[in-house]
Amino acid sequence: MDLHREMSADIEAERQSALDLLGPSAPSVRASVAELLKHRTFVYPLSVLPVIVHAVETGAPGPAVPLAVVHELWWTSACYLDDLADGQAVFAAGGLGESEALLATVISGIPLPLLVVQSPRIPETARGSLSAEIVRCWITGTEGQLRDLRADVGAATRDAVVTAYLGKSGAPFSMVTAMAAQLAGRTDERVERWREFGNVFGILWQLFNDQQDILTGRNEDLANGTVTYLLACALENSGSAGRVLELHAAARRSPDAGAELTAILLAPDVLRQYEQDISVFRDRAHLLLRELGGDAAYLSVLHDLVDSASPMLLQAAEQIPRAVPAQY
Questions:
Q1: Which residue of 77, 185, 268, 296 has the smallest Cβ count within 10 Å?
Q2: What is the CB-side half-sphere exposure of residue 152 using CA atoms within 13 A?
């Protein structure tokens, strides 16, 4: 949070420079993308993640500010597409019409990030590898979303859900951590280690989001029939997998079924498994950071970020508050 406050003016200036890259012949495109970015604000300032990684490697966060903008652009696009898949496109589009928002989403997610990493702000030697990371991320992220949409809840296991999470959240975080290391001129081996850290952090962040969905009372995962890691834990540990499957199918239409399923998800045995697995992912992230090493001050920020992203928030018989708007 402190680093984001310190660098917010630089990130905003870089964001405006990125919009300028769309050129004078596309004023409608620029206006639409700007509206999309204005509407999609994020509670957590994770756009500084590539800035921190670059600073761990070099002691200098500034050169990676363009990657913070790439991160914002990617997530703005991905969040809108996720809303579209969930039937929330009108809400997610802000002042834009649904078709306008969809067109702006395409530009903000792929061409504009590519323009950013091809701009003069990025050393020419790094442009090709950074562009390839963006393409790779979209392919992997789309694979994860398709796995999510086509998930067979009857065959759901914790390992299968992790595979989907690696696409949904692992891909964008591993993209920016790998890009930061590439921008710093690090070896392929070290870049891959940062990619692994991004993947693990992405899993932790998805688990954090899953918990928030329940605690805020949004219950979007129930309404959408999403196969979450917590659901997989329930299927493996509740002792009544058949009933879990019945309730999961009914929860899309029945609040009573959703409430009964939530009670099963929050059973002590299920939460115990969930908490143990969160600890495994958290320990893996910390181990990777210790092995990577680097600037101690910025490395400590990453350790703190891992801890902040991996609390066990759910409790048995937790009272669920009323719904609030979804956030990043």
A1: 296
A2: 2
Q: What DSSP designation does 49 have? A: H
For residue 221, give the amino acid letter. D
How far is residue 254 CA from its own chain's centroid?
29
In the chain, the amino acid numbered 52 is I
The single-letter code of the amino acid at 6 is E
Which tens digits make up the pLDDT trace of 304-324? 999 999 999 999 854 444 444
Domains and CATH numbers, the chain: 2-308 (1.10.600.10)
pLDDT tens digits, 146-187 = 887 787 787 789 999 999 999 989 999 999 999 999 999 999
d(CA 261, CA 233): 13
Cβ contact 309:208 at 8 Å: yes
Tell me how far apart the alpha carbons of residues 92 and 80 are, in angstroms, rounded to a whole number. 6
Reported residue count of the chain is 328
